[in-house]
């Protein structure tokens, strides 16, 4: 595959999304670095800052070579590192572990959907980096005795086959136990909502706009409801391994917000898309009808909440438009 080939739509979109995402993480972790206390977590944060800085440069160089406008993304002006902290060190590392899974999914899709050799190599390097980052995060979590592992179960002793449609039941009659796959999805959805709830609590404390503050408060209430929903499903099976991050949101003492409303709203829109994607996969891989109905309902609810966030971004002129095809009149003058 020639390096002179034009970028495909898939390659442009993955590079654009990666630039915006890495700019968000780079600047957010710069704020984390300004107040982190634990030395192990500090080294991890420093690595992420260094890596994302290089990523941003790599993407920008490709855009300039291809005569594609470099995205604005998130800039240092969106983050104030000269103020007090909003979250604990424990939150930083749990958030970071969840972030690695999100990035793995993005870069894996980017790799398999890219055709140009240099772009495939770029995203393969990102995946290789993430392997090391994830191992480092796992080691830190273990050393701090922070448990974010899915539950254990005792499996049955022989292979079994589905005998009738009762396997899919979830409302009436005898309902089977959750499968390991269903437990996994419930656990990780519970965890991601615990993280989202903490973020929304922190964001709502420092947002300057009343409308945006109310939006974050609503997001925190939804996340709290979903944490309880997933927990209840697991508790009925006598499975309880939830993690609460409520106490990891600190009382903020700074005069100026550490994060701009623009930053926090864009980050929340990212979270919304991540959540909808997770619920879609969970729906597809769950076979009990009560679970599929639950995930379908959550997709609709989060979708409506996400639309409100997008409206707020548009009203404030903060929603950056991804690359669109050039108009014919523009092409005629090139």
TrEMBL record:
This is DUF3231 family protein. It comes from the Bacteria. Pfam families: DUF3231 (PF11553). InterPro entries: DUF3231 (IPR021617), Ferritin-like (IPR012347).
């Amino acid at each position: 595959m020639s390096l002179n080939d034009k970028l495909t739509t898939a390659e442009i979109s993955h590079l654009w999304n990666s630039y915006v995402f890495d700019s968000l993480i780079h600047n957010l972790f710069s704020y984390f670095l300004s107040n982190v206390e634990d030395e192990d977590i500090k080294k991890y944060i420093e690595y992420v800052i260094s890596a994302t800085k290089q990523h941003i440069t790599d993407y920008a160089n490709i855009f300039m070579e291809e005569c594609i406008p470099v995205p604005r993304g998130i800039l240092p002006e969106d983050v104030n590192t000269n103020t007090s902290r909003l979250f604990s060190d424990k939150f930083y590392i749990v958030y970071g572990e969840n972030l690695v899974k999100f990035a793995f999914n993005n870069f894996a899709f980017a790799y398999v959907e890219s055709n140009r050799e240099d772009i495939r190599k770029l995203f393969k390097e990102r995946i290789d980096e993430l392997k090391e980052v994830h191992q480092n995060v796992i080691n830190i979590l273990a050393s701090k005795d922070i448990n974010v592992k899915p539950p254990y179960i005792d499996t049955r002793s022989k292979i079994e086959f589905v005998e009738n449609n009762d396997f899919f039941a979830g409302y009436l009659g005898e309902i089977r136990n959750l499968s390991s796959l269903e437990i996994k999805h419930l656990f990780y959805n519970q965890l991601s909502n615990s993280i989202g709830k903490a973020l929304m609590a922190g964001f709502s404390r420092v947002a300057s706009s009343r409308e945006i503050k109310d939006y974050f408060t609503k997001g925190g209430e939804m996340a709290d409801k979903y944490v309880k929903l997933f927990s209840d499903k697991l508790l009925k099976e006598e499975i309880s391994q939830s993690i609460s991050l409520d106490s990891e949101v600190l009382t903020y003492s700074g005069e100026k917000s550490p994060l701009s409303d623009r930053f926090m709203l864009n980050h929340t829109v990212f979270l919304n898309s991540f959540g909808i994607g997770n619920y879609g996969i969970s729906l597809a891989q769950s076979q009990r009808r009560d679970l599929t109905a639950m995930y379908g309902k959550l997709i609709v609810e989060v979708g409506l909440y996400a639309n409100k966030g997008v409206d707020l971004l548009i009203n404030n002129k903060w929603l950056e438009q991804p690359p669109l095809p050039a108009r014919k009149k523009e092409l005629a003058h090139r």
